[in-house]
Batch of 3 targets.
Target 1
Amino acid sequence: MLQCAGLRCPPEATQGETGKVRRRTLLVLGSMALAVVLAACAPNATQSALEPAGPYAEKAHNLFVPVFWVAVAIFVLVEGLLVIFLVRYRHRPARAGIPPQVHGNTRLEIAWTILPTLILAGVAVPTVATIWDLAAEPQGDVLEVNVLGHQWWWEFDYPEQQIITANVLHIPTGRPVSLTLCAAGLGYEQPAPSQCQPGPPEGLPPAGIGDSVIHSFWVPALAGTQDVVPGQTNMLTIQADEPGTYPGQCKEFCGLSHKDMRVLVVAHTPEDFAAWVAGQQEPAPVPEAGGDVAAGFDVFLEHRDDGSCTDCHALRGVEGPEDVPLLANGGPDLTHFASRDCFAGCSFATNEENLRRWLDDPPAMKPGSWMPEYDLTDEEIDQLVAFLMSLE
Amino acid sequence: MASVSVPTDRRGGLLRRPSATSGFWSWFTTVDHKKIGILYGITAFAFFLIGGGEALLIRVQLARPDQDFLNAAVYNEMFTMHGITMVFLVVMPLSAAFFNYFLPLMIGARDVAFPRLNAFSYWAFLFGGLFVYSSWFLGGAPNGGWFGYAPNSVVDPTRGMTFYAIGLLITGIASTVSAFNLAVTVINMRAPGMTLFRMPVFVWMGLVVQLLLAFSLPVITIGLVELLFDRQFGTRFFDPASGGDPVLWQHLFWLFGHPEVYILILPAMGIVSEILPVFARKPLFGYQFVVFSGIAIGFIGFGVWAHHMFAVGLGPAANTAFAVSTMIIAIPTGVKIFNWLGTLWKGDIRFATPMLFSIGFIAMFIIGGLSGVTHAVVPSDYQQTDTYYIVAHFHYVLFGGAIFGLFAGTYYWWPKVFGRLLNERAGKVHFWLMLIGFNMTFGPMHVLGLQGMPRRIQSYPDSLGLTFWNTVASIGAFIIAVSILVFLVAAIASFRKPKEMEADPWDARTLEWATSSPPPEFNFEEIPVVHSIDDLWHQKYAETEGGRVVPVAAGGSGEAAAASHDGDAPGHGIHLPGPSYYPLVASLGLPLIGYGLIFGVGFAVVGVVVLLAGFFGWILEPSAE
């Protein structure tokens, strides 16, 4: 034998190593423990699932926390046994010969089959109870909102309040909000059926732009995720206890700009929410003649051969050139655009600078954007920005 | 034994029969399970380096917020290819490498049941992998995720997902063929006395994996064909506007995909179950329990698929059922861990590199298993699904588990395969760097997921507070890369040493160590007769009533292998199948048919002709002359 091959090495060689191995094992385990501690004091995560802000998120959290600590206990126990055995039964030159050949112990093995079974049964009971609890229809004073997942932005339709908005979901505090989730856009060629939207008005083509694909609506502080599946209507209940803003994000990979499909939930006190509803129910403010705002309005209404703004976007209460009401046809309703904190899938703050970049070249900001680049002049862009920012 | 191979130059069909069994070209015609095993291993390792490179690019992109190092389109291709590569082109074929090489040796057989079919499996796998990778140069790589959810995977305008569907169909053919081949080998070709319950655990896990493959691959095949037809031929399996259903794809994918997880992890469990007893110098604690828990995992593995779909909206009844079945499958998994601990208990543990990787496997797999149980808590999974928490979980299982286990096997069996030992010092550096890098990369992902980082996002704004742990994870990924470089250098350096390894350097327990290192082409001079589990060990050591061990007197049958070098013409008169071109030729037709489905029927016609020519030559050629 030319090389020292493991087991048949002279004892000194492995002995020196085992001491080091033990110290290094302790070092690694210590640094792992440190990492866990550090994790607890990680910098402020604004989209964290660990800080529930309403009863529906809390139900999930109240299951996660005890299960987590049970898992930690098992982790410590099993990894601890592993380390103890490794240290205790490491090879020592003093020990002569081969250890007794223990082939097993049926009682012990049955015991460690039954024990995990009991622990898991203990976990299963509250799990199943909460599954049914969360699936139950919310009772009492419930706000209904239809949520449409587009490629790549969220549309919110409040059927009772007759409000359609995008990217930012406003809700009242202390009241369950029942979301009906549908995917919007085209199936392979024709529009996919959706129960979140009424059919198009007589004579108009059905709404459809972008592909109808699977999304997932997720605002971790308010509830767990629910997928949005073409051809299927899913329900999700969210609720916020305190006024505030709660960010969320599409969780199911939905194509090129998946990362840009964000959402912001703004929770108001019931009074503030009522005021917000009243503001949103106003028709779009039509500008007085003259100035950049009015010029922008004209650009908005103008018929262009490569596609007009009004082909996809609506302004409630405004009629187009042939007295046809402007209805959203695949793009976000812009009636109160400037009142929203963010646009384009809520990945960009609503301000003049971002809007200018957007109108210049949408796909450059949001890859694959279904709103194409329209070769607008700088002047037209300035006018449109002025007009859009006037839509409070 | 009576037949004697007579060299002839008779033309067998279209091509002259190759005769070389060594040298460069012999690798293209070999039907020797050991050479095919090495081919599988080298190819899978090459794909491992590529898939790892993709992972590094992903980690560079995510190291800091709002980066555009990889744009969204390339990023989507990158994570998709990383996933496809690691699952289908790395872990599956690496396991196949070990199964190919060692199942016949461990059951005392001379080869697999169908040697030429075995070569065909390898070539089909290689061409399937190259076919998928050719997409980078032919209009874009797959970009819909390894899970390829419809309708996104259908409506995407690039060619990537067509390459995905066809490429996975080709590697699926390779895996199906190989699954039946190896299952038949284990069932039919065991040496005399090698009853099922004398088989090493690795062989058992091999058998379970082949059966899982045989039953789960048809399901994904149906899904892939439907995807391909939807994309290329205008069918509408997943289009709700025409009465199709996107969720159908998910059921088909995960009904394959979850058994697939066990296809990836059971081989590593088998490897570790072989290594622990050798280096603790005790038999596996509760052999039957380990075997039966492996079988149980195999069965229950088909009943848990919808735990990937808790958020889809299947309803509370379905979610309850799959939550419970998922918890049940945790039980046999836990049993295995306790049995491994029992094996270490009162052992005489030596920390050679294979043992370090096996211990790393257990330590990391415990973490992956525990986080896995938290997924079964459905309401909590509503938060964690599709976040980095899941990414962390399955990397603890498939990297901390499968890859650590496969490296354990690599260090353990390297001397058997190549007749040389891998440098122990380099092995230890590799292990510790990989363990630290691995935990730095994937440990923080638990936190990232819980703090709201979804999967498959190309970038994240700094305002989400996710930057710190992403940076840590990216640094960890490069530490893993350094550890792999250490292995690569050690592997290459090992070939500078003389090929003088003894038959049984680890004082091991199973039959592959009874023959020389590397084994002769015919594996065993004489087919061994098996008298017990761990037969080689019992040839070397006798066990008293109380479990005390005494070495068998010198000259025991363990020395038989070493003795095979004297005397003349070892292996004379052993009948072995001859090398053949036809498996290579036939499998070459598969990617051509694939290109035909994308670029025009001309390629497909050529492909079918090549495939049929290969099969005809194969049929007309006697297995040996």
Target 2
Amino acid sequence: MGHSNWAEWIYVAVVIALLVYVGAEAWNIENLIEHTPQDAEIIKVTAQQWLWSFEHEDGTKEVGELHLKKDHAYKFEITSKDVNHNFNIPEFVVLMDAVPGRVNTVWFSPNQAGEFDIQCREYCGLIHYNMRAKLIVEGV
Amino acid sequence: MSKIFQLSIIVATLCIIPTVSLAFAAESAGEYIDRKAEIWNLFFRLMVVAFVVGGVIAGTMVWQVWRFRESNPKAKPTPYEEKGEL
Amino acid sequence: MVLELKRARPVWQIMFSTHHTDVGLMYLIFSILAMFIGGAMAIALRVELFAPGAQLIQDSMTFNRLFTIHGTTMIFLFLLPSAAAVGNYLVPIMVRYKDMAYPKLNAIAFWMIPPAATLVWLGMADFGWYANPPYSVISAPAPAAEMWIFGLKILGVSSILGSINFVVTILKCKHPDLSIGKVPLLAWSFLSSSIIVLAAMPTFAAALLMLLTDRLGATGFFNPAVGGDPIAYQHLFWFTFHPEVYVLVIPAIGMMYEIIPRFSRRPIFSHGSGVFAFVLLAIVAFASWAHHMFATGMTFTEKTVFMIGTLAAVPASAMHVFNFLATMWNGRIKFATPMMWAVGGIALFFAAGAGGVVNTAMPLDFITHDSYWVVGHFHLFVFGTIAFGTIGFFYYLFPYVTGRMYNEKLGVVHFILAFVGACITFFTQHILGLFGMPRRIYDYPEIDTWISMNALISVGAMIILVGMVIFLANLIYSAAKGKPANLQDPFGLGGKYYYPYSQRNPHHGEGGY
């Protein structure tokens, strides 16, 4: 097709090399974080317009608040009762869509104690902007 | 040429450190992978790449725009200007 | 000239005309009008977001409607028609033909747009320009949703008709002495983007129809309560709209291919590379759609496939950047307004692309998905690249359309304000996204970092606004009272400068283009 100039070929080779690097690193890290540990406690997360409710393995229910223990592993099973929402704990980079008719999972282990925000990250209507909850991580 | 060399040094460093750390994967603190640390680590590494490449491209453009502007005392007509078919 | 205000042609003559320069003019005027309307909505949004609490907009529903229609207006009513304006005006000239292949169809494609726009603007739907179900099916108020759906249906058909015209004109009506390889790159950009539209648009047309029948209760494609799958819509939507963003950017790059060689006084470094990159981009555009869906619960393998598809499109764009830089090398560059916009556009194009690569690295999507990072990223594309290329090209076309020169100093001021404003607004939005602020929110909690960044972003938006007001004033004043331009070489570049076969508008007397 007529690009006979060596500079352009080298440039394209460098671009492709960089993209391969990006792809490989991303693949590596995704692989690493997707491995749910066996002993992760399951927390059912239910999104609805416009609040979050949670259910622990032992049946304890919480609305608008979630109490977890530091350094334990938790696996969220996320769904919605009405429209699409997205369960997001920005501090711990937990993010997953809550889709009605489907259960999505994501796991994490909070390594910091304290109070953190939970917010909705998928437009869901009137009070999407204030569909928030509190994550309270207890422990030393 | 030297720019490409410098770039490859940076990229090699960015590859070696995480590879080495993955090889020694027994996390020292706690049993579980720190999701937040892994993801932000990747982010910052990619930012280094993006800013280095961006610096090269933006630097080239700024230099070019300065050197080849028509008001530059060193500016000379291009070979195509006489011929007329641009 | 088609718009000679001193000897104004009867408006009905332009409106009923099917000549490509008149249809191009109508697309041009409509797209500029839509740009200002969409821009006004953006300013309203930014005033509201300046600080937490209600400022300008007292309820979240109004805010939601505004961001939905802002997005819809800018994409469908500004960017697509402005590309059509440029294409209509120049493609026949570039292929040395007397008009578009189907002039009447051309006019019809244009005239479908004002009624569609009316439906969209009067409806003011609130579901975001993606119209994702189930919200758009079970929760979005009528009649706004239906009006939006019908409006977009009509716009889709208009786009398809325009694309058919471009493809046939370029492939079948080009002059017999002009080989396809020698067709200018701007024409190639219209050929590529039109082929993408023809392949991608029907999927969205289907999705819109399915959305409508779901809303009517006749079907349950996307409503889980009756067995549907909301994610299916996202596949259909993004299968069209990822390629569609290339439809938006490719003509703007084509416009830069017109401006940069001319103002550098050198031919394009590699015409062949440009053609190759356009064709490659058009093909690879179809391989990446589900990178918009990384947060929906896709499997690792699915995400990997689409990450690779996304990365595969980067070399083609990188080839264009190389081409531009190599063209300017050893040139003698006149930095008139169009050239400034084109070069600024390339710089922001790179920044936009780099941010996109970060998004597609799968784990990083967990940081950036549906946050202000994404808003900053795509605005660097649509404003920083596409609008910059388009506005620069409007300045370039100005003497041909009006026979007069715009005010150069005001053009430079406009550029500086737009570039500085864009950097302040959109780079800060990237950082705001990293700090966790979601998009499409009417109000936000009193987090100090969010407050200060939002204020800065709003200031940046105001800077862009000032530039745009100057632009409008320049356009109107210069069209009526600007200095008459030397139509052989309006920018003083020297050398033969335009296509050898230019058109005469049949309604115009002597000198008409």
Target 3
Amino acid sequence: MSSLTMADAALKRKRVARKRLVNGAQNGVWFLVVCALAFAVMLPFIWMIVTSLKSPTEVFAYPPTWIPKEFQWSNYVEMWNEAPFGRYFMNSAIVAICVTVGQLTSCVLAAFAFARMEFKGKNVMFMIFLSTTMISSQVTLVPTYLIMRTLNWIDSYQALIVPFLANAFGVFMLRQSFRTIPKELEEAAKLDGCSRFRFLWQILIPLSKPILASQALFAFMGNWNSYQWPLIITNQDSMRTLQIGLRYFVSGEGSTQWGIYMAAALVVTLPVIVVYFLVQKTFVESMASTGLKDI
Amino acid sequence: MNLSMLKADKTVKQQLTPSAKKRKNKETFEAYLYLLPSLIIFAVFTFFPALFSMVVSTFRWNLPGKAMFIGLENYIYLFTDAIEAPIFWKSLGNTFYFAVGVPINLIISLVLALLLNRKIRGVGIFRTAFFLPTITSTAAISVVWLWLFHPAQYGLFNSILISLGIPIQSWLRDPLLAMPCLIAMGIWSGMGYNIIIFLAGLQSIPSTYYEAAKIDGANTFSLFRFITWPLLGPTMFYVLTVGIINSLKAFTEIDVMTQGGPLNATNTTAYYLYQNAFQFFQMGKASAIAVLLFLLMLLLTWIQFRFVDRSVHYE
């Protein structure tokens, strides 16, 4: 009897061990598959970095080398001399920061009204706000350009900033968040003589920091990476943003200095990648919940 | 506002005391003050342009010249002109051709999300690897892929072809290959976003469903077929329609890599609109294209809303 149960237990242990082995092997295979795929996805980035460190002659060598014979760090210096990347950088930063701050302000104010106030025409207004998300940038492109032309705003910071100072999607997200804060808090504040605006500024905003951070992040990234509008609205080199500067840098001069081009591409993408690594968690979570990519 | 006031507010809505009415008016006034900044921007840069583009589409307006009313001639011209119509139709065809990348992307992303949803060591690193192309600016990655697709033998893809014994290709300069090249890059750069959405969807499926099915003896395939697939359905449809709408807007990669060429092989409607407006300066014709593109997007959005409604009822 006891020997039977012992044999049983031994068999069971064996089965568990085998199962574990199979699972381990399976996981090992999955791991390798994912590794290979991740490497394939990273390949363009790796090639960008490798090329950015090559000398002009090595860039055109066949077969291509995976490790530069001598690291040509000067590519990263030369790009600043060959095009006004400093200026582009400044333009991009000014525009992206102004849009982020301005958009967040307008969104917070509108979201506050929708979330915490009762007023005539509230539903109609909300529908009007939401309907703007259906009007794509393509359809407003030509008329907006014509408006800028009439205002004499072509080649100006205003033209790059002002059209993006409102965002219905941001209003929607902030409204959802503001609504979760209990009404009792507002009433208590009001009894203590707190005005509505002060309640927004001193209580609601500090309580909504995470959602504000993710909205700011999206606004900044979307604007930093934006391409079509800055391309259309800027003609002078001094008003170009990084993305546009990069495009003209690469398409000019016979397109041969690939080492420097790759260095420039890397520098252009770096700020966003740094921001991504700093706030990775917020970023991925808010993207999953909002389902938003760019403007 | 105290409790009794609230009650009064609800029961006798019609007969508000003068002071309550005044307060309500004040609140309405204040609310519109909060809405004002957004409203001004929307009015000037969204609603007015949307209407104005319909107006402009009925004019012949070649900058810097004056505008002249011509009715529906721009539209007729786009659809019937011997030189114009073939390019316009080709651009529409190219737009849908480019959108082929969206369902392919969907399938690849789903497989990767399923892979990443297992408990693998260092999953965060992999997620970052797949996600990096999504956050990188399209202009910069287009420059990188321009170099990968370099038509000489030292281009990375060509050197890979050579080592496999396949003749080198001119990639983006080949009218047949240019569009598939753009699609490939689009899949690469869009994958990370889809994976994040799918992972969120997968993680929202209660694990008890899988456990119960496993007890009933379900295998891996039927777990996917009867639990994951139907529960992920709405997410996939969302990703599909949003992806298609976004692909209709694609501009940056085309402008950096091919400028619509070779031989209009990558000239999509969105790019054709840009060419007409900002290279040929024909604002009327460009606006007509914009209106048609808008109608197409509206149709897709409508389909999306309809389907989402139905899936909610289904659940």
